[in-house]
Amino acid sequence: MRTLAGSLLSLEFDRSSVTRVRHLVMVSAQEAGLEGVALEDYVLAVHEAVTNAVRYGSPPRGIAMWRETGTLVCEITDKGPGIPAEVLEREEPATRFDFGGRGLWLMNRLADRVVRTGADGTTIRLSVALP
User: Which stretches make up the Histidine kinase/HSP90-like ATPase domain (predicted)?
Assistant: First the structure.
């Protein structure tokens, strides 16, 4: 795992490294200036994206985090089959009886989210204003 110049975090991950990635995201976000509830919310949003990439995507899976003017940005990528349109368009979370279905909904509420998805993979970009 190495960090690219100018970035806070940049690495590939798999199922076995999800916990370590969450820790690295938390440390990187703290170093960028997030704290308290804003830090917890952002780490949860990124964790949901990482978990979805492992659950539904295919390798290689990557994460990168960097600062832009007044903003912290994290991008999660995979080479999976893409996210179905009906899942992206869902405005309410899945019911409590459904398996899954809350990750994208949570991401959208905890951070600014941009999704690019298709047959060649998915990129989820989550950003939050820095204090």
Answer: 14-127
Does 1 fall in a domain?
no
Which residues are CB-neighbours of 20 under 8 A, at least 6 positions away?
A: 13
Q: Answer yes or no: is 99 within a domain.
A: yes
pTM beyond 0.70: the answer is yes
Helix or strand holding residue 44 (H, E): helix 36-56
Render the burial of 59-80: b for 16+ CB within 10 Å, e for the rest.
Answer: eebbbbbbbeeeebbbbbbbbb
Summarize pLDDT for 11-36 with one digit per residue, the tens.
999 999 999 999 999 999 999 999 99
pLDDT at residue 87 is higher than 90 = no
